[in-house]
Write a structure and sequence with these properties.
With about 140 residues, this protein is mostly helical. It has one domain. The chain has six helices and no strands. Pfam families: MauE.
């Protein structure tokens, strides 16, 4: 059952990160302009616009292979936490930045995007914990032989 759950979680994350990375690459100019409008990110817009979509596609690839899945789940958890944290920062700050999330998933508000990110943060956390439990069970079974 755990293996099936990890497979479903992994599939959801692969779809999410592949979609997100490809959209950002295919509409690179728009993504770059959006980054330039965000507080804290504007000075780093160029490197982020190149690096983030690449990182998302590499992350999706890591999730696909059993040998690298735990690393992929760890990085997915980290990335979703960073995304959610930045949205919380925007919502609680004095910044009036329009949500550009519509390009990716059709959201029109930061609050809707935050809810989506928190759901996928929990998905990534569940996958990470299940994978951790499965690894420990394998280790115990190996020691018992």
């Amino acid at each position: 059952m755990k293996k099936v759950a990890v497979t479903v979680i992994t599939l959801l994350l692969v779809i999410l990160f592949t979609h997100a990375g490809l959209i950002k690459l295919l509409d690179h100019r728009v993504f770059l302009e959006e980054l330039r409008s965000y507080p804290l990110l504007a000075p780093f817009a160029g490197p982020i616009a190149r690096g983030l979509p690449t990182a998302e596609l590499i992350l999706a690839t890591l999730l696909m292979w059993p040998r690298t899945r735990f690393l992929g789940l760890s990085l997915a958890l980290l990335l979703m936490a960073v995304f959610a944290g930045y949205i919380i920062f925007l919502l609680n700050g004095a910044y009036q930045v329009p949500c550009t999330c519509e390009t990716l998933l059709g959201f029109t508000t930061w609050t809707a995007q935050l809810k989506f990110n928190l759901v996928f943060l929990l998905v990534a956390l569940s996958g990470f914990l299940l994978q951790l439990i499965m690894r420990e069970e394998e280790r115990v079974m190996h020691l018992a032989r």
